[in-house]
Amino acid sequence: MKKLVASFCTAAALAVTLAGCASGSSAGGGSSASAGPEGLVQPGKLTACIDPEYAPLEYYKNGTDGDIVGFDADGIRALAKHWGVETNLLVTSFDGLMPQLQSGACDMIFGGLYMTDERLKIADASAVMQAGPAILTSPDRVKDITSPSDLCGLTVAAQSASSNAATIKTLSEKCTGDGAKAINLVEYPKTAETVLAVLNGKADALAETNVAAAYMVTQNKGKLEIAPDVLELDTQFGVFSRKDDKISASIASGLKALREDGTLADIAKTYGLDPAIVEVK
Length: 281
Fold this sequence. Notes:
Layout: H1 6-10, E1 45-50, E2 53-54, E3 58-60, E4 68-69, H2 71-83, E5 86-91, H3 97-103, E6 108-114, H4 117-122, E7 123-131, E8 133-137, E9 155-159, H5 163-177, E10 184-188, H6 191-199, E11 205-209, H7 210-219, E12 225-227, E13 235-242, H8 247-260, H9 263-270
Parallel strand pairs: 1-5, 1-6, 9-10, 9-11
Antiparallel strand pairs: 2-3, 3-4, 6-13, 7-13, 8-11, 8-12
């Protein structure tokens, strides 16, 4: 889901390996001597719209303000460094990200947005990460959940009205269609409540977006594990720019270079993510 609860972010103390820091306005990220690629809103500076409320992709290191860290934040800095320009992080609410981009306030959105058909109608995007649902459970149960059919008959928690809840509903229908027991889906308003449901024994497992799931594991070591390869990663996160903008091609080539030299994989590992998810086409 786009936002994890504040209690998760407050607990974060993940190491940041890339140089540079960020605040709500700007941060250093390379020399300003170069004008960078054609199409920047401000020559010599990469301005990215970001909503720092989605660990481990983008969040405030101290929970509420100060340095913005995470895979996306470090990815922005790495791209700016690749281009030899400064970094400017423009903090924006989630629902304001696309309007800010379209208005010309920033060059890109590098911030945990799915590459949906609706978004691709109004903006360009370059894939940066494989995304989709994941299953978390207790360490003693993880060996028993190796395929979707293993969820049949179990109680699975998910955030209310989320895509993850919809995925479990679809799987439950397949269970009953195959003659197995339905999945008992329990929905909670907040993601933190889905975690507590598993920790307190009210649910056997929970469904969450893969990147959020990885962060949940880091905050509940020894209590939660991801059951690997149970659900298909069925979508991608993208870096968005304005439709047919001159900078779009530079973003695509820049991300390709950072993928090929291992930079994106290293950033992923820094935040507890499987580096394989940055291998996108």
